[in-house]
Amino acid sequence: MKDGTQLDISAYWAAALAQRAEEMAGFFAPGAQVLWPNTNERFTAEEFIRANCEYPGAWEGEVERVEAMGPLLITVVRVFDAGRTVSFHVTSFFRVEDGRIAALEEYWGDDGPPPAWRQALGIGRPIR
Q1: Please, are residues 84 and 27 in contact by the beta-carbon 8 Å criterion?
Q2: Which of 15, 71, 99, 112 could form a disulfide with 23 if both were Cys (CB 3.0 to 4.6 A apart)?
Q3: Ramachandran sector of residue 12 (left: φ over 0; alpha: ψ -120 to 50; beta: rest)
Q4: What are the pLDDT digits (tens) for 85-128?
Q5: Cβ–Cβ < 8 Å for 53, 46
Q6: Cβ-count burial 72-91 (b if 16+ within 10 Å, e if not)
């Protein structure tokens, strides 16, 4: 088993953000599973690629962080629409075997201001 650094994560994210299904498919091992716990969904790699590539609109993104620990590769990516009117952060946990994605678990969150109740407390400050 190769470690997670054997996966070209920049190339994977470029293909995913550009919604290039055939290119994305080459990154997944046979039988790979994808989990989206936020919405309680489990996908085959084929279903995941379809969901990604049929999502409406054109998307861009920036890989903000990559951590590799043996066969586990973790990324934090900011994803935004082409007009940059909406954005999300996705934290992805890739289990890599022989340089391909065997399992992927992703957590998506909307970017935006803190909720009003927390603003009212006057705590916290912007990260950037």
Answers
A1: no
A2: 15
A3: alpha
A4: 999 999 999 999 999 999 999 999 999 999 999 999 999 999 88
A5: no
A6: ebbbebebbeeeeeeebebe
